C-alpha cells in the first residue's frame, strides 16, 4: 500500500519537472513528475523509461497522493511487465547485431591506425577504430553514421509525400527526442527522430505522413486522420506496429 512520498529535490518553487520517489504496494518507485497547464487532471504513463506523472501546476500534493494510492497496484504490475520485456543493453563490439531500416546488420569492428567513418557492405557495417575496446567511441561513430543515413532518407521521403499531399514544409531537421518520433510546428518546421532509421521504411513513411498532415490540420481531429488516411490508408496498422516497437 501507499505509505510515503519523498521529494528528491530541495524545497522551493515547484519546478515543471522533477524526479521523485514513492513507496507503492511495498515497492519503492522512482518517477518523473511533470507540471503542465495543458492538463486538467493527473495522468500516469508507464513505458521503458519508468513512471511519468503529469499534473496541472496548481494540483495539490493531497490529490497527487490520492491518485498514486489508488493506482499503486496497477503501477507496480505495469513496471514489472516493462522490466521483464526490456531488451538487453546494446553492446558495441565486433559481431553484435544492430538495426537498420528494420533489418539486422552485423557490426564489424576493425582495429586500425586511423579511425574512419563506418562503411556498409552487404549486411555488415564496418567500423575502423584505433581502439576496438572503446565502446563509447564505436557507439558515437555508428550514431553519426545513422544520423547521416537518416538525413538523406528522410529528406527523400518528405519530398515524396509533400508532393502527394500538396504541402510545403518550411524546414526538416533531425531530432534526438526521448519520447517522440516526430513533431511539426505551426510555422511548418518538421522534426524527425534520427532513430527512426532503425525502423522499416513503412514505419518511417507513416511518421513522415503523420507530421506532414499537421501542415493541413495542426491537431489530431477526425479531419487530421482523414488527411493521414488519404496518403497512408493502412496508417492504423502502421501506427500500432510503431507503438509496439517503442522508442
Percentage of residues in helical conformation: 25-40%
Radius of gyration: 22 Å
Strand ordering within the main sheet: 1-2-3-5-4
Q: Low-confidence runs (pLDDT<50, min 5 residues)?
A: 1-13
Beta fraction: 25-35%
Sheet with the most strands? 5 strands, mixed
Mean residue pLDDT = 90
Number of domains: 2
CATH top-level class of the largest domain: Alpha Beta
Quaternary structure type = single chain
**Principal-axes shape call:** globular
Helix and strand arrangement:
Elements: E1 5-7, E2 17-24, E3 27-35, E4 43-47, E5 50-55, H1 61-70, H2 72-85, E6 97-100, E7 103-111, E8 116-121, E9 124-129, H3 135-165, E10 171-175, E11 182-184, E12 189-193, H4 201-213, H5 222-231, H6 235-245
Parallel strand pairs: 3-5, 7-9, 10-12
Antiparallel strand pairs: 1-2, 2-3, 4-5, 6-7, 8-9, 11-12
Helix pairs in contact: 3-4, 4-5, 4-6
Tell me about this structure.
The structure is a single chain. The protein has 247 residues and is an alpha/beta fold. It folds into two domains: 5-85, no CATH class; 97-245, Metalloproteases ("zincins"), catalytic domain (Zincin-like, 2-Layer Sandwich). The chain has six helices and twelve strands. It has helices spanning 61-70, 72-85, 135-165, 201-213, 222-231, 235-245; strands at 5-7, 17-24, 27-35, 43-47, 50-55, 97-100, 103-111, 116-121, 124-129, 171-175, 182-184, 189-193. The strands form three sheets. A five-stranded mixed beta sheet has the order 1-2-3-5-4, with helices on one face. A four-stranded mixed beta sheet has the order 6-7-9-8, covered by helices on one side. It has a three-stranded mixed beta sheet with strand order 10-12-11, with helices on one face. β4 (43-47) and β5 form a beta hairpin. α3 packs across α4 and α4 packs across α5. The protein is globular. The two termini are 31 Å apart. Residues 1-13 have low confidence and may be disordered.
Amino acid at each position: 500500500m501507499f505509505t510515503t512520498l519523498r521529494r528528491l529535490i530541495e524545497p522551493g518553487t515547484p519546478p515543471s519537472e522533477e524526479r521523485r520517489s514513492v513507496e507503492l504496494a511495498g515497492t519503492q518507485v522512482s518517477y518523473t513528475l511533470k507540471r503542465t497547464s495543458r492538463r486538467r487532471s493527473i495522468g500516469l504513463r508507464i513505458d521503458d523509461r519508468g513512471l511519468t506523472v503529469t499534473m496541472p501546476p496548481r494540483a495539490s500534493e493531497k490529490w497527487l497522493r490520492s491518485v498514486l494510492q489508488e493506482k499503486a497496484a496497477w503501477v507496480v504490475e505495469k513496471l514489472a511487465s516493462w522490466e521483464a520485456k526490456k531488451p538487453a543493453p546494446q553492446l558495441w563490439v565486433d559481431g553484435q547485431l544492430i538495426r537498420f531500416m528494420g533489418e539486422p546488420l552485423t557490426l564489424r569492428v576493425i582495429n586500425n591506425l586511423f579511425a574512419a567513418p563506418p562503411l556498409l557492405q552487404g549486411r555488415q557495417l564496418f567500423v575502423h577504430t584505433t581502439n576496438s575496446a572503446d565502446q563509447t567511441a564505436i557507439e558515437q561513430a555508428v550514431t553519426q553514421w545513422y544520423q547521416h543515413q537518416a538525413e538523406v532518407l528522410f529528406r527523400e521521403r518528405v519530398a515524396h509525400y509533400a508532393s502527394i499531399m500538396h504541402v510545403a514544409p518550411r524546414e526538416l531537421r533531425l531530432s534526438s527526442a526521448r519520447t517522440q518520433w516526430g513533431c511539426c510546428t505551426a510555422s511548418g518546421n518538421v522534426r524527425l527522430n534520427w532513430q527512426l532509421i532503425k525502423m522499416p521504411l513503412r514505419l518511417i513513411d507513416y511518421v513522415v505522413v503523420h507530421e506532414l498532415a499537421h501542415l493541413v490540420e495542426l491537431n489530431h481531429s477526425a479531419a487530421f486522420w482523414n488527411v493521414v488516411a488519404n496518403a497512408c490508408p493502412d496508417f492504423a496498422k502502421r501506427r500500432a506496429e510503431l507503438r509496439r516497437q517503442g522508442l
